[in-house]
Design a protein that fits this description.
By secondary structure, the protein is of the alpha+beta class. Helices cover 19% and strands 35% of the residues. Among the domains are: 58-190, Immunoglobulin-like (Sandwich); 242-338, Immunoglobulin-like (Sandwich), CATH 2.60.40. The protein has helices at 2-29, 38-41, 58-62, 129-132, 201-205, 209-217, 219-227, and strands spanning 75-76, 83-86, 88-91, 98-106, 109-116, 121-125, 139-140, 142-143, 149-155, 157-158, 162-168, 173-182, 242-252, 263-268, 271-277, 283-288, 291-293, 303-307, 314-321, 328-338. The strands form four sheets. An eight-stranded antiparallel sheet has the order 17-16-19-20-13-14-15-18, with no helix packed on it. It has a five-stranded antiparallel sheet with strand order 2-4-5-9-8, with no helix packed on it.
């Protein structure tokens, strides 16, 4: 009897111990493990991102360095041959970096063609920022495939600082800029021969004046006959292909109608044409060197694209006006100059 009780107690004790062991293992398996906060542990992904550079400050935008060329003499257009030349142009602003520059000399006018780094500026004006806001003769920038911008601006002389301005799209403002075209960088062939007569030139020429006059006298008629009937061929005069703004000087007629200024000059393949607009809608054709040209538009004023024989020189055109009871051809004189 005692043995059986003892055996039963041992079995019960074994069962209890077995149950306790199972509960302990369960508790161990169900122990609370701290959650892995992926948001806190994982990097945000911004550690290696380079922040966008801040744009230039207003102080940087308005800062201008002194680019004056000490001791240099001004060089005007009349000292240069007509043509298209490479030239070095300094900029007074680090934010207006000139990559390439060319000088165009035609009709007694000099024009700079400037390639500026980037496309931060869309317009350029040969005058101060305050003047540019209301100016009409503004150079519109042309952005190339590399993202750089080309401007054209007329200058009066080399070796002198030109105060100009550029329009920044980001701020919507005009900023004063300065540039200087260096004559020392031009090829020697760009300059006209120096007018330096020898001391005895006057003596040699003395006495020859009458003979020279007599010789030339008889040649005038022959020369006139040879040139008679010849038409001026439109030539590019050294201008690179592209569009240019030109000033129109107009005369003739009754004064009721005129060709508006400025106009656009087109240079392509060595030839020049100009798109001109009349103040009147009553012109059905124009004639230039005998060529009849029809208007491309009449709304708000007749628009014609005409050949241009030369810049800086007057030439005759004919406009056929329909403002009268019957159409009449009227002769006008035009002169186009780079602006």
């Amino acid at each position: 009897m005692d043995i059986r009780k003892t055996a039963a107690l041992l079995i019960c004790l074994a069962l209890v111990l077995s149950m306790l062991a199972g509960c302990g293992a369960a508790n161990t398996n169900n122990a609370v493990v701290p959650e892995n906060n992926s948001n806190a542990a994982e990097p945000s992904g911004n550690e290696n991102t380079v922040p966008e550079p801040a744009g230039p400050t207003e102080e940087e935008m308005t800062k201008l360095d002194d680019i004056t060329k000490a001791g240099a003499q001004p060089v005007a257009a009349d000292k240069l041959k007509e043509g298209n030349y490479d030239i070095k142009v300094a900029s007074g602003s680090a934010l207006f970096k000139i990559l390439e520059s060319k000088l165009v000399v035609v009709g007694g006018v000099m024009q700079l063609v400037l390639k500026v780094e980037g496309d931060a500026y869309s317009k350029m004006y040969a005058g101060s920022a305050s003047e540019a806001a209301s100016a009409q003769a503004v150079s519109e920038g042309e952005v190339d495939a590399d993202g750089n911008t080309t401007f054209r601006v007329v200058i009066k002389s080399l070796n002198e600082v030109l105060k100009c301005s550029a329009y920044a799209d980001a701020s919507g403002k005009w900023y004063d800029r300065t540039i200087l075209a260096d004559s020392d960088s031009l090829d020697a062939a760009a300059f006209k021969p120096a007018d330096t007569p020898k001391p005895d030139d006057g003596k040699k020429d003395e006495g020859k004046k009458d003979d020279s006059g007599k010789k030339d006298e008889g040649k005038k008629d022959d020369s006139g006959k040879k040139d008679e009937g010849k038409k001026d061929e439109p030539k590019d005069q050294g201008l690179a292909d592209g569009d240019y703004t030109v000033k129109v000087t107009f005369s003739g007629g009754t004064g009721k109608a005129k060709i508006l200024s400025p106009a656009t000059l087109h240079v392509k393949g060595g030839k020049m044409t100009a798109t001109v607009k009349w103040s009147s809608e009553n012109y059905d054709y124009m004639k230039v060197n005998g060529q009849v040209i029809k208007p491309s538009s009449t709304a708000g004023g007749c628009v014609f694209t005409i050949p241009v024989p030369a810049l800086g020189k007057s030439f005759t055109v004919i406009g056929d006006t329909t403002a009268m009871s019957t159409p009449h051809e009227i002769e006008y004189t035009l002169r186009l100059d780079l602006q």
